[in-house]
Hints:
The protein is of the alpha/beta class. It has helices at residues 19-25, 30-51, 70-93, 109-120, 138-154, 165-170, 217-229; strands spanning 11-15, 55-62, 96-101, 128-136, 182-185, 204-207.
Amino acid sequence: xxxxxxxxxxxxxxxxxxxxxxxxxxxxxxxxxxxxxxxxxxxxxxxxxxxxxxxxxxxxxxxxxxxxxxxxxxxxxxxxxxxxxxxxxxxxxxxxxxxxxxxxxxxxxxxxxxxxxxxxxxxxxxxxxxxxxxxxxxxxxxxxxxxxxxxxxxxxxxxxxxxxxxxxxxxxxxxxxxxxxxxxxxxxxxxxxxxxxxxxxxxxxxxxxxxxxxxxxxxxxxxxxxxxxxxxxxxxx
Length: 237
Ligand code: FPP
C-alpha cells in the first residue's frame, strides 16, 4: 500500500532444492542445475536488498551432501569458489555482509582461504547479512555447542544452572543472527533436512514446487505475502 511501510520478515532462510531435477528435465548434467542455482542466489540477494530484508540464510552444502558422487561434489565446490570470488566483491559494494555457517573441518585449504578472506574483508555497511550454510549440519551445530558449554562447566567457568536457551544460542554458528521468521523450501519436499534445527523452532514454513533454478523475485514475493497472512502466536493464544 502506498505511503504505508510493510514490515518485511527480518530473516528469511531458504532450502534451495531441485537443481538436479531442473537439469535432468533439460537433459543437462546436474552441475548445470547448480550453476543456474548459484545465479538465482545472486538475484535473490538483490531482491532482499531491494525489499529491505535484513538477513538471508541459504543452504548451499550440507555435511550429508559429501555422500553424492565425487563429480557432483567437486562441481559444487568449484561453483562455490566461483561464487565466493566473483560475487563477493560485487555484493560487498552493495552492503552485503557475509557469514559462514558450518564446519571448517573437511573443507579444502583453497575454499577455507577464500572463506577467511571474505570474513576478514567483509562489508563495512551491513545492509544485508548473507549467511551461507556450507558444510553444515544442524545436529553437528548443536553437538559442538553442547561440547563448548560442557567444557565451560568442566573448567568451572559456569555452573549447570547457568545453561539457558540464550547460552545455547550463543554457542551456535548463528550466534549473532536472529532466528528465521520464514523458512522457504523449493522443490516440493516437506522436510527440514537438518537445517537450522534449533533456530526454526517458531519459523513459518513455506514449501513451493518451484525448483530452485526457476525461483524468482515473484516467487519470493508469494512466500512473503503468505507469511504476512499468517498469525504468529509463538505458542501463545
Ligand atoms: C539441492 O538440489 C541443491 C544443492 C545440494 C546445492 C545447492 C547449491 C547451489 C545453489 C549452488 C552453490 C551456491 C553457493 C552460494 C555456493 P538437489 O541437487 O538436491 O536437487 P534434486 O532434489 O532435484 O536432485
